[in-house]
Design a protein that fits this description.
Length: 410
């Protein structure tokens, strides 16, 4: 709690918004946990269902298809009914999808598992579409990127715990089925939905920006079509949307196939790999995100993003070149320097959205479909060549983030 107590002193969150910020931050942990489990499911389904790496990447593809298809409806829902109802609806879908693993495990049906993951994806995008802009808006515009990085740090905590808890369970000699962790998670999430249905989250009204004032428009009074057209006229939005899509290609594909990479040449066994993914890679990711939040309270977010983009390109390229220990270190370089990318690009992008923040957020939350694309491409390349060579895919994704950072650095 001390970290939240110090928020007002850091001028990240005013005292009147401290409790809403704490409640919303808990959601970041939940979807971080849910998304990190996917990285364990890839290897688990390859063995339990006797499928290839390429087939197992349908785990990510199906989940993030839910993100893509549900993102705009999510933005419309929270625009009309507010953040709290968006959160509750997202939690309900999340919980229902998790409980669908029970019939999936009973029949050992990969299609049922995929259907469950699709429903979970629809729920998660509602949570993210609600929570990301809400956390960004709970304070001064100048500290939005730093504030969102702090909230996203708890996403990192969920990412750390999921592989070690669920991976340790699934990869142990006497483990139960995959439905066990999902049933527990489903019950917890439905309880959270009940709690959020009873609390009041203050609605934050975004102020019109200079562009809206200059042309006399007001996106809060526009129809959906006019709002979307207004957003697409904004270069900050268009470039930010593309940058996030490319970031998701890199970040999600590396997470999804980390265990495969770590076990491909005998570097470690799958149980050890799940622990290293949690406490090594994702632990480093979380620490870097917290550090990034502090750094960006003193240095412009655009400059920090540029340095991080350069380092991730170097890290991913080193892995693709298969340079032994250098390549293995390159994986962790990617985790350390990609940490601030999503919340930073997100905050910069919605800062130019005026009163269209909720719809802008919904479009930005379509970008995890890039993870489905990247993971599938990595899987195909790994099956055809090697896991090291497949890191060309995230290297290209990071390169486009670097181009974005160069464009906005001033």
């Amino acid at each position: 709690m001390q970290i939240f107590t110090n928020l007002s002193q850091m001028k990240l969150v005013s005292k009147k918004y401290l409790l809403p910020f704490i409640l919303i931050t808990s959601l970041f942990f939940m979807w971080g946990f849910a998304r990190a489990i996917l990285d364990v499911l890839n290897k688990h389904f390859q063995e339990e269902l006797s499928i290839s790496i390429t087939q197992s990447t349908l785990v990510q593809a199906t989940t993030y298809l839910g993100y893509f298809l549900m993102a705009l409806p999510a933005g419309i829902l929270i625009t009309r009914f507010g953040y709290r109802r968006g959160v509750v609806t997202g939690l309900l879908l999340f919980g229902i999808g998790a409980l669908m693993f029970i019939p999936g495990a009973s029949l050992m049906s990969f299609p049922i598992f995929l259907a469950a993951l699709f429903v979970i994806g629809c729920g998660l995008v509602l949570l993210e579409t609600s929570a990301n802009p809400y956390a960004a808006e709970l304070g001064e515009k100048a500290t939005a990127a730093s504030r969102l990085n702090l909230a996203q740090s708890f996403n990192g905590l969920g990412c750390i715990l999921a592989p070690v808890i669920v991976g340790g369970f699934l990869f142990s000699d006497n483990s139960g089925g995959v439905e066990v962790p999902y049933t527990v998670m489903g019950v917890i999430v439905l309880i959270a939905a009940l709690i959020f249905s009873r609390v009041q989250l203050p609605e934050i009204s975004a102020k019109s920006d200079d562009k809206e004032k200059a042309d006399g428009s007001d996106s809060s009074k526009q129809g959906l079509g006019a709002t979307i057209r207004d957003l697409w006229k904004r270069k900050t939005f268009r470039y930010g949307l593309l940058a996030l899509f490319c970031y998701e290609i890199a970040e999600i594909s590396i997470n999804s196939l980390f265990i495969n990479y770590a076990t491909s040449d005998g570097w470690m066994d799958k149980a050890t790999a799940s622990i290293v993914l949690s406490f090594g890679a994702l632990g480093l990711f979380m620490v870097a995100r917290i550090a990034g939040s502090a750094i960006m309270s003193k240095i412009k977010a655009e400059k920090v993003l540029l340095v991080c983009a350069i380092m991730t390109v170097l890290g991913a390229t080193a892995v693709a070149l298969d340079l032994g220990a250098v390549s293995k270190a390159g994986v962790f370089v990617c985790y350390a320097f990609e940490a601030i990318m999503f919340p930073t690009i997100f905050a910069i992008t919605i800062s130019d959205a005026g009163k269209s923040v909720k719809i802008a957020s919904s479009f930005l939350m379509m970008t995890p479909i890039g993870g489905a694309v990247g993971t599938s491409m990595m899987g195909l390349m790994a099956d055809a060549t090697s896991m090291s060579t497949a890191f060309v895919v995230p290297a290209i994704g990071y390169f486009f983030v670097l181009l974005y950072a160069l464009r906005i650095r001033n």
